[in-house]
Structures are given as structure tokens and as C-alpha cells.
Amino acid sequence: MLLSRRGDPEQWYRSMAATVLPRTRELLATGDGDPMVPLFQVLFRGLCTDIGDPDDAMSGYERWLSEVRTEIEPERLVEWQPGDGWDPICRALAMPVPDRPFPHENSTADYRARKEMRARRDEARLASLRSADRAAPG
What we know:
Blueprint: E1 2-4, H1 9-18, H2 21-30, H3 36-44, H4 54-71, E2 78-80, H5 87-93, H6 108-135
Parallel strand pairs: 1-2
Helix pairs in contact: 1-4
């Protein structure tokens, strides 16, 4: 079992607040039919009562880490955090470390760049659809 964690709860919350929490809060508040809403409801149910409250969210995060550590036998648990790279995972799997860098660390900058790229792609698709609608006879 791989337990992906961050250095400390504050680091985890800062990362979440800078990336997924704004959209998560919006979706959970509006329930606008987005297919991600049920996923977020499951992910955050039991973690905390208010993901917008840093103390509540960080307490929930610490509680979740503790629960995983309690439920999974230590010899089956690999604790990993961005920056650890291949070593802990490969060691647990008794596999050699690949000769290439770990794919990425999923930094806030990486997240934002992917989000901007998706937004540009979606806008281009929407523009293409609008153009096709205008060109269609009718």
C-alpha cells in the first residue's frame, strides 16, 4: 500500500488550497452537475466537516494518515511524498530503480500549468464548435 503524504499538514493544506480546493469548494457548494462532485463528496466525507477551514482539514488529514497507518501492516505500507522519487517504491517492490527521472513531483506550478493548458484546449474546442454552428446551413 502506497501512502502518499506531504511533509506536514500545513504543507498539505497549502498545496491543496493553491490547487484543487477552490474548484472543489465551488463544486460542492453548487452541485452544478459536474461528474466530479460525487468523487469529491466521497473523498472529503470523513476527512473533515469543512474543507474551507484549514484547522479542520489539517486535523482530518492527520487523522486519515493515522488511520491508514493503523489499518495497514507496517511491512505492507510504503510512505511516500513528492520528492522521494523511485527509491521507496522500488525498494518495497524489490525492483530496480529506473534509469530515468521520476516523472514529476506534481508541484503547484505543474498543476496550474496543466489547468491552464486544459482551459486553452477547452476554449479552442468551444470556439471550433461555435464556428461550426455559424457555418452550418439552417
